[in-house]
Automatic annotation (TrEMBL):
Lineage, highest ranks first: Eukaryota, Viridiplantae, Streptophyta, Embryophyta, Tracheophyta
GO cellular component: plasma membrane
Topology versus the membrane: Multi-pass membrane protein
Quaternary structure and partners: Homodimer and heterodimers.
Annotated region described as Disordered, given as residue ranges: 1-25
Biased composition (Polar residues): 1-20
Protein name: CASP-like protein
InterPro entries: CASP_dom (IPR006702)
Ranges annotated as spanning the membrane: 57-76, 91-110
Annotated ranges, domain Casparian strip membrane protein: 51-122
Length: 127
């Protein structure tokens, strides 16, 4: 039988039949051990993701602390004469950036802490 004869025997809209093999009965014990390995891998992945989220929150908290320290140092830096930084526009710009940085980082810390505690997203992601 050639390929042309085989193609003419099949119907136009039918799918080719693929023989399916049943799993051997004696291999059922090995399947449970494979499932155990897969489930332990999933558990390890979940624990690792939780650890990454907690570490990320700790780093954001550290960034917030440094941001607040920078803001405080720049805000209380008062001198007289030419060292009076309030006279310089650049200093006011850097101070404004420090304020924005502190507010933004504080918001990120609060958002991530809320998500970590409740498991719910505070702000829905846009798709």
């Amino acid at each position: 039988m050639t390929n042309n004869d085989h193609a003419s025997n099949q119907h136009v809209g039918s799918l080719p039949t693929i023989p399916t093999a049943t799993p051997p009965v004696d291999n059922l014990e090995n399947q449970s051990s494979v499932m155990g390995v897969e489930s332990s891998t999933i558990v390890h992945r979940c624990k690792r993701e939780d650890l990454i989220k907690k570490f990320s929150l700790a780093l954001r908290g550290l960034a917030l602390i440094f941001s607040v320290i920078a803001l405080i140092i720049m805000a209380i830096n008062k001198h007289s004469g030419w060292q009076d930084f309030d006279k310089y526009r650049e200093y006011r710009y850097v101070l404004a950036i420090a304020i924005l940085s502190t507010v933004y980082t504080g918001g990120q810390v609060m958002r991530q802490a809320y998500e970590l505690c409740t498991g719910k997203l505070l702000l829905q992601q846009r798709s």
